[in-house]
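User: Hi! I'm working on a homework problem where we have to compare a predicted structure to a textbook description. Could you give me the structure for the chain below?
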Amino acid sequence: MNKDKAVRWDPSWLYRDVPETIITSVTDDIEGFRAVISAPKCPEARISVRRGALVLYCVYDEAGLVRRSIEGVEESHCFYRFETSQLLTEALRAYEGMRDDLRHYAVYTSDRCLDVITVKDPEFKSLRDPDV
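Assistant: Happy to help. Predicted structure tokens:
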């Protein structure tokens, strides 16, 4: 069995080590994949993967992490990029010969978890930005 190994992903200093972060919505439609997050004293933000780059995603409650052994996950941090994971291994096996550039990112909050397998790095934008 694979040992899941995550490293910190710090997409924004606004959300660096904010344990109260929550995922408020997840949308996957013709415009692409988007997850909106919020936290006290932080502006709402969007994590997005442009259309065509998303391979798969999973959204589940925090209880899904209880029995997983993930090296590198910190109690007060929410954002990760995986070096190795069971989900990434399964995706690579499913897309063998078609895609070898898959990446696994995750947002783990106190009530919901989001795992994303993509071929491009997700973008992070504050919803206060005028170009959003």
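For your comparison, note the following. The chain has a mean pLDDT of 90. The chain has one helix and ten strands. Good luck with the assignment!
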